[in-house]
Amino acid sequence: MALRHLWGIFSAVGSALVWGCGDFAGGRAARKHPAYAVTALAACSGLVLLGLFALLWREPLPPPASIAWSVAAGFSGVVGITALYRGLATGRAAVVAPVSAVVSAVLPVLVGTLLEGFPGPLRVAGIAAGVLGIALVNRPAEGEAEDRKSGVPIAILAGAGFGGFFVFIARVQPGFLFLPLVVAKAAGLCGALLTLLWKREPFVSPVRNPIALLAGTLDAGGNLLYLLAKQYTRWDIVAVLSSMYPATTVILARLLVREAVSARQWFGVGLCILAVALIAL
Prior knowledge:
Layout: H1 2-29, H2 35-57, H3 64-88, H4 93-116, H5 121-138, H6 145-169, H7 178-199, H8 210-229, H9 235-242, H10 245-257, H11 263-280
Helix pairs in contact: 1-3, 1-8, 1-9, 1-10, 2-3, 2-7, 2-8, 3-4, 3-6, 3-7, 4-5, 4-6, 4-9, 4-10, 5-11
C-alpha cells in the first residue's frame, strides 16, 4: 500500500512538471494566435499521441459511464486550458497560472472530502501547505499589482475548468488509462472547433504555430500521469500535487523570458516541495 501511494505521488508530481512546461509553451503560442485556435491545434497533437498509445496498448473500450465522465472532463478541460492560454498570453505567468491552480486544487479537495472523508493528519497538513504555497507563488513581484487585478477573472475561470477536469476524469473506472483521455481530448477538440466556428476564426496551420503542438503533447502527457496517479492514491491529493504546475511555469518564465519573480513566490515554491514530502509520508 505504501509503495502504491508513493508511486501515485511520483506520478502526480510528474504531471505537475509536464503540465507546467506545457502551459508555458501554450502561453507563448497564444501570443501569436487566438487562445481557442491554439487550444484546437494543441488538442490535435494530444489526441494523436494518446490515440497511438491506446492502439499500442490495445486497451478495451471503457463502460458508458466512464465515457460520459470523460466527455464532461474534456469540455471542462478545454474551458480551463483556453482561459489559461489567454491569460498567459498577457505575459503575467507569475499571476495567471498560480491563481488558476489555487482554484483547481481547492475544488477537488472539497469534493474528495465529501466523498471519501478527511485524509490523515500529515496529508491534511501537506494539502494545506500545498494550497498556501500555490497562493504565495501567486503573489506578484513589485509593480505588478495592476496586471494581477486584470488577470484574476480569467485565471478563476481557468481554475474552475481544470478543477472540473480533475473531478470528472477521476470518476473513470480504475484500470482504464488511454481511451478515457482519448475521449476527453476528442471532446475538448470538438468544443474548441465549435467555438472557432461560432467566432468565425480560422483553424491555425501547425506550420504557423508549431509551439502549440508541443503544448498539446505536454498537456496530454500531464493528463496521462494524472490519471495514472489517481489509480494509486486518493485523487484529491493527486489533484493538489498536480496543481503545483505553476511552480514549473514560473521558473521557466524567469529563466527563459526574465519575468520578475518575488522572494515570496520562491518561498511558495519551497512550501510546495514541503507539501510533497508531507503527503508522501
